[in-house]
Write a structure and sequence with these properties.
The chain is α+β, with helices and mostly antiparallel strands. It contains three helices and seven strands; from the N terminus they run H-E-E-H-E-E-E-E-E-H. The chain has two domains: about 30 residues; about 110 residues, Immunoglobulin-like. InterPro entries: YhfM-like_dom. This is YhfM-like domain-containing protein.
Length: about 140
Amino acid sequence: MSKRRRIKIIKLFFKYLCIIFIFFAITGCSSEKNQNVQKINIYETENYYGKKENTLVVIENKEIINFFVKVINNAKWVQGLVGRGKDPDYIIEIGKDSYLFWTDDIKAVMAKEEDNGTIFSLSNSSTKKVNEIIRQYLNPLN
C-alpha cells in the first residue's frame, strides 16, 4: 500500500471517528436530566428554606412534569453575584433535586437548592406558563 493511500485511510478513519464522537456527544447531551420523574412537589415558602405549612401540591400530570423538566434543562445561567435580597416564592422538588423559584408576572429565576448562589433565568414564555401552572394548582389552597 502506498504512503499516500495510508494517509488517505487514516484521514478517513479520523473523519468517521469525529462524526461518531459528535453523534454521541449530541445524543448524550440531549438526554434530559430527570426524564423519569413521576411527580413534582411544589411548596410555597415562608423564608429562604422554610416550606409554608399545608401548601404542598403534588403534580403527577406527565405533560406538566415534562414541561418543568424542559424548563429546568433550558434555563439560562445568569452571570454575576447573586444576593439573597428576596426569599424564594416556591420550592419545587423534581426527582431527587430541589429548586428555589422566584417569580413575578414578568420574569422568573431559579436556583438549585444546594447551589443557590448560581441562578438561572427562564424565558418569558416559560415564566408565563410556570405562573399559570402554579396559580392553577395552588389557588385552591389559598
